[in-house]
Amino acid sequence: MANEIVLYDLPSRPPSHAWSLNPWKARLALNYKGLPYRTEWVEYPDLKPKFTSLGIPPNDKTINPQATFSSPAVKLPDDTYVMDSHKIAQALEELQPEPSLHFENGYTDRVQSTVLEINKALAPIALPRIPENLLNEPSAAYFRETRAKRFGMTLEELAKSDKAGETAWKNAAPGIEQLRAILRENPDGPYVMGKIVSFADFIIAGFFRFGEILDRDGDIFGRSMKIDENFGKHYEACKKWLERDY
Predict the structure, then answer these.
(1) Which structural domains are found in the chain, ordered by start?
(2) How many C-beta neighbours within 10 Å does residue 4 have?
(3) What is the value of pTM for the model shown?
(4) pLDDT tens digits for the chain (246 residues)?
(5) DSSP letter at 13?
């Protein structure tokens, strides 16, 4: 259909559902605003040829130095394309200002840097599970190859390295404390602004959902939820916008 929103997301094994952290941010914004859209699933190695064919310019290296082209991207109703979850959310805000994502609140950058810090620290635990548990073979092979180059070892080696296990949680602790502090700033909760939802909440909710998908016997998501009761309250409050994952 013409004039529809198309969200380009990374598929899981059939039946495909949303799993990846960054696409979740854009999907949450779409679900929150109630905008109609359809998902087009694009495997990792197909992102560059697909997005190049659509005329999408590559990522700014200062924003995403790891990938020239990345998911998510969207096609907007005016047939323009936007890549990068933050830029997508801003475009959706312009398209439909209400309900607002409240970018003016100052939390977006703070939450983004905090979540990235935690995610980076927990990567030795989480990342090896992605090709093993979630990805179709083309994406799994791509993921293993690119992450091996990034870490200087295979994902199997990373999972067994001294960077994993309790070391990963120790490295994540400063970021986790920052996130706890952010969620305590407005004690009326459950959102970072108290009773008001903002895009910053969807960065957190997408991260928690990512951890839930990769969890094994409570070792990521379950452990996170036990750290602070506000984490669970926040996740429960955002669940209604996590329901549509396809």
Answers:
(1) 5-95 (3.40.30.10), 103-241 (1.20.1050.10)
(2) 12
(3) 0.96
(4) 458 999 999 999 999 999 999 999 999 999 999 999 999 999 999 999 999 999 999 998 877 777 899 999 999 999 999 999 999 999 999 999 999 999 999 999 999 999 999 999 999 999 999 999 999 999 999 999 999 999 999 999 999 999 999 999 999 999 999 999 999 999 999 999 999 999 999 999 999 999 999 999 999 999 999 999 999 999 999 999 999 999
(5) S
